[in-house]
Amino acid sequence: MSDDVLVVSGLRVEFRRRRQSFAAVDGVDFAIGRGTTLGLVGESGSGKSTIGNAILGLVSPSAGCIEFDGRDLTGLSRGDRRRLSSQLQVVFQDPYGSLNPLRTVGQSLVEPLLPDSGLSGSQRRARVVELLERVGLRAADMGRYPAAFSGGQRQRISIARALVSRPRLVVCDEAVSALDLSTQAQILNLLSDLQTELGLSMLFISHDLAVVRYVSTDIVVLRGGRVVEKGAADDIYLAPRNEYTRALLAASPTPDPARKAELTRLAAAGEAVLSQADARRTTRTRSA
């Protein structure tokens, strides 16, 4: 059996705008090993969330292959996708928007378990209580509604819901960007602990390279729908080779003034290179 739980090969996703097609993702390749986290980082519009949506079946790839546990996901029917959902879960950016405000926490968390006919009602409840306690909440919270919780608590509930069906892969799409810094740190620590305890594989999508480095084993940097750099998380963070990666690092907050100054210098030096590359791309697009 392969050591990779997810393999993305030559992924291309196209959208139509004003009767013309454009590639939001173009030729992306990466793999996620069992029990590891791949960080997918880039600015807004880089294609990172589109890749996550393609993996989740929310958009259709124009080309390429997405293999989950050796099975190609790109040609699956809606029914097959639904049956696969217990093994492939997601935590979205907005925890309040992803929870039904008319359902209690217990109702939201038990829903992914309903298709499992092998579990009794008491077993489902025990699973929900176990996950709530694992993310730092209480069994008594099952009867409360999402509006009764803070943003950080709602994100803990979203994480519990994603894990209650015991998935093999979790996609975290900007899962901490809507939270304040102290709550971000708590959620990141929680995700790291849960990954160690449960042997999870994760795709962690974010615009913040410093956050991605904290939770990731490897990092893929995207720009304009294409991979510009990838490698081990510490290598990408401490010794970035690409000018765009340096610019992302310079935009991330860092407590070390000397490193911040060095990153800013490197980003400024690479700005001209990036501008020239953008100009060449625009010229080729107009010519085509």
The average pLDDT is 85
CATH topology of the largest domain: Rossmann fold
Strand order of the largest sheet: 6-7-8-3-9-10
Global structural class: alpha/beta
Distance between the termini: 44 Å
Query: Rg, please?
Result: 20 Å
Major sheet description: 6 strands, mixed
Question: SSE order, as H and E?
Answer: EEEHEEHEHHHEHEHEEHHH
Description:
By secondary structure, the chain is of the alpha/beta class. The chain has 2 domains: 4-87 and 167-239, 3-Layer(aba) Sandwich (Rossmann fold); 102-165, no CATH class. The chain has 10 helices and 10 strands. The chain has helices spanning 48-56, 78-84, 105-110, 121-134, 151-163, 181-198, 209-215, 233-238, 243-251, 257-287; strands spanning 4-17, 20-33, 37-41, 63-68, 71-72, 88-91, 169-173, 201-206, 218-223, 226-232. The strands form 2 sheets. The chain has a 6-stranded mixed beta sheet with strand order 6-7-8-3-9-10, sandwiched between helices. Strands 2-1-4-5 form a 4-stranded antiparallel beta sheet. Helix 6 links the parallel strand 7 and strand 8. Helix 4 crosses helix 5, helix 5 (151-163) packs parallel to helix 6 (181-198) and helix 9 (243-251) crosses helix 10 (257-287). The longest helix has 31 residues, at 257-287. Mean pLDDT is 85; it is low at 270-275.
List keywords for this structure.
four-stranded antiparallel sheet; Rossmann fold; 2 domains; alpha/beta; six-stranded mixed sheet; 288 residues
Provide a short characterization of the protein structure.
This protein is an alpha/beta fold. The protein has 10 helices and 10 strands.
